[in-house]
Amino acid sequence: MARSVNNILTKGLSGMVGGQLVFRSWKGKTFISAAPKKPKKQSPLQKQNRQKFKMATTFAKSMIKDPAKKAEYKVIAERLNLPNAYTAAITEYMRKTEVKEIDTSGYSGKQGEEIKVVAGKKGFEIQQVEVVIIDKDGVALEEGKAVKDSDLDWVYKTRTTVKEKEGMQFLIRARDRTGNFIEKRVNNHLS
Fold it and tell me: What DSSP letter does each residue of 29-76 carry, written as one string?
């Protein structure tokens, strides 16, 4: 990109000229570059990523409008060594939530037993973890919210006794405050 210095014809000029050159003014200086080329065809994954980033910027803008949320993201930005609250909000939206472990060893099908879930999101908190117990026909036998036990650990206490354990599955949904969630299914360890 070339820079125009002390040229009275181009000073402050901006926009495209002749379809070949683009003039931009920034901080009192005029820059000249070739016109951008037509973008190449995007792959479905590129389109998906661009759409997600567009949603992330919309989310970040809405968070920054609220002074309390902006202050919260500013603290997060400092902790994660990010430049500002806006970038921290975009980072939270773009990072994936992970269900790292589902521990059903304390569950034998009886009421009041525990299912433990380890879920997290690098640098951010998970807002909610739900557990669904599904029978072999795909019918939900019970579902509910797990209770946060520590930074990454969540515990769900069963409310019913299950008679038929053959083919049973556990569906875990971990949701962050951006509204994004991940689902993970595991088969039972019972026979």
Answer: EEEEEEPPPPPPPPPHHHHHHHHHHHHHHHHHHHHHHSHHHHHHHHHH
Q: What is the pLDDT of residues 139-175, one digit of tens each?
A: 899 999 999 988 779 999 999 988 877 888 999 999 9
CA 52 – CA 46 distance, rounded (Å): 10
pTM of the model: 0.70
Instruction: For residue 66, give the DSSP letter.
Output: S
The identity of residue 71, as a single letter, is A
Could you give the domains of the chain? 2-34 (no CATH), 44-94 (no CATH), 98-187 (2.60.40.1220)
In angstroms, the Cα distances linking 41 to 34, 37, 92, 100, 103 are 21, 12, 29, 36, 45
What is the total residue count of the chain? 191
Quickly tell me which residue has 């909000």 as its tokens.
89
SS3 of 20, please? coil
61 has pLDDT over 80:
yes
